[in-house]
Recover the amino acids of this structure.
């Protein structure tokens, strides 16, 4: 993986929105309305709209309106047809048969060659795609047979999630396949909507394609709103005001405004898993946390149950793994695998590791003070600030010098990728497959690779190598065991599954993996 991928993880993690679920409920009454405009708030500008460069969830939320994928998932996580009507999976390849009659927004047919060109473009080193190795597996190649209506995606060796990974690949068609510059502020896809206006920093307007009839499980555009506006609203308080007033039909809330929105009459809502919340220790050669006994002691010093409540402002769920729902591998990789809270054991562990408490109240070893630079994003609400202060206080009681460093998202990405000026980082993660994390948790270290924390967990690497070569269902126990191997050595410490409020007014809709499901959007008439 590349340096771009390190920044991509930070962006993907820090901007991941709610995953799964439907904004509907007893509060929302009325019958479906035809036509009209559906307006949804996004927290930041999505940037360039070429799907080969779209790793942030805000970008993919916008792209999902105009682009289809080969397969999709239903609300239970089951793979269902989308552009592909059927598929044949082998350990190292999957062959898709495309639906007939699918057209691009310019009226041209969607062909297997279109699909192959997308995959091979992303895999081309010259593209420098941040989704290569994350959303598109490293080493994947594509070969089309237009006469047969099939496209085959293959790997050099068996790969567990060769089918499942395609649920995240948006397929560009028409003019955009060869002219990528043309889709920076436009769309060229087979999805139910086409981008008609892009005003960066303010809004993106899409018009429905009434001929669309090839959505997941045969979904069509017949009852969809005529227009969808993705409105940039960076401030959650502003988004809450607009939603309650009826100027927005949908938004996601992570911070304190969620309680006000929940209490507002006429608002339909659902609490959804937003990201997995955990912290990493920097294990570079000159770092104290390179010693597993130090990592264990630092972890034992924190009451993770209390920390979970603080970080999530009391709205989180117990951490059970590193992958968002709906997970391809069911199970709990966390319980029983994280060092338990024991402040006395933490102090004894640091003593045994040679970090002795001095007369100045700080621990030191070979004349070097035990210092930790704790980094976190300031854009995720007061809970993260409070969590950082709670952890710092617990470590200071042990005689550790802790410096808190709250930064904006771009600065956090820069520090993970280049400057490496951190010892502990709180980094939420929002991925849908365990394979999407491998390059970040093993392999070449930053800045040369994507392994930003310099992890060297041989057991994790061995389990991943084993799991990768097994069929997905058969591999799941091994994938879960690989996560547990990281927790047992405190390479990273899972704390909480954070939640978000998905809220709507005057409309119902679903989200999946942080993005709107465009064929689910329905405007509703008055109560």
């Amino acid at each position: 993986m590349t340096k771009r991928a390190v920044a991509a993880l930070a962006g993907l993690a820090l901007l991941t929105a709610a995953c799964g679920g439907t904004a509907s409920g007893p509060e929302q009454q009325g019958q479906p309305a035809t036509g009209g405009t559906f307006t949804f708030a996004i927290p930041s500008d999505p940037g360039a709209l070429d799907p080969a460069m779209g790793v942030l969830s805000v970008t993919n939320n916008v792209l999902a309106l105009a682009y289809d994928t080969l397969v999709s998932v239903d609300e239970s996580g089951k793979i269902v047809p989308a552009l592909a009507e059927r598929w044949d999976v082998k350990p190292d390849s999957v062959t898709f048969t495309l639906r007939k009659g699918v057209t691009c927004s310019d009226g041209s047919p969607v062909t297997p060659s279109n699909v192959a060109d997308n995959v091979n473009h992303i895999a081309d080193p010259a593209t420098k795609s941040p989704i290569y190795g994350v959303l598109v597996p490293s080493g994947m190649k594509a070969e089309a047979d237009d006469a047969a209506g099939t496209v085959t995606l293959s790997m050099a060796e068996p790969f567990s999630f060769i089918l499942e990974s395609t649920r995240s690949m948006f397929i560009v068609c028409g003019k955009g396949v060869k002219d990528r510059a043309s889709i920076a502020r436009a769309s060229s896809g087979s999805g139910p909507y086409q981008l008609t206006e892009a005003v960066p920093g303010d809004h993106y307007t899409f018009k429905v394609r009434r001929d669309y009839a090839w959505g997941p499980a045969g979904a069509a555009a017949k009852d969809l709103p005529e227009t969808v506006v993705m409105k940039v609203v960076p401030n959650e308080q502003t988004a809450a005001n607009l939603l309650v007033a009826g100027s927005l039909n949908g938004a996601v809330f992570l911070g304190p405004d969620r309680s006000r929105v929940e209490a507002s009459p006429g608002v339909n809502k659902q609490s959804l898993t937003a990201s997995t919340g955990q912290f990493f220790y920097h294990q570079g050669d000159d770092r104290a946390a390179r010693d597993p006994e130090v990592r264990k002691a630092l972890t034992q010093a924190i009451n993770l149950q209390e920390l979970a409540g603080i970080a999530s402002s009391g709205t989180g769920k117990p951490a059970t793994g590193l992958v968002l729902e709906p997970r391809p591998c069911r199970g709990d990789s966390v319980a029983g695998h994280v060092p338990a809270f024991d402040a006395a054991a933490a102090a004894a562990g640091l003593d045994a590791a040679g970090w002795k408490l001095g007369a100045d109240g700080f621990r030191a070893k070979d004349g070097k003070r035990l210092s930790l630079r704790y980094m976190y994003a300031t854009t995720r609400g007061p809970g993260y600030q409070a969590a950082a202060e709670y952890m710092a206080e617990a470590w200071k009681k042990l005689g550790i010098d802790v410096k808190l460093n709250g930064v904006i998202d771009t600065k956090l990405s820069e520090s993970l990728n280049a400057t490496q000026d951190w010892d502990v980082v709180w980094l939420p993660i929002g991925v849908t497959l365990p394979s999407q994390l491998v390059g970040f948790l093993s392999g070449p270290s930053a800045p040369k690779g994507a392994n930003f924390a310099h992890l060297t967990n041989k057991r994790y690497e061995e389990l991943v190598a084993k799991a990768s070569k097994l069929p997905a269902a058969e591999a799941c126990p091994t994938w879960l065991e690989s996560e547990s191997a990281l927790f047992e050595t405190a390479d990273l410490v899972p704390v909480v599954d954070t939640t978000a409020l998905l809220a709507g007014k005057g409309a119902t809709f679903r989200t999946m993996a942080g993005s709107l499901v465009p064929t689910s959007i329905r405007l509703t008439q008055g109560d």
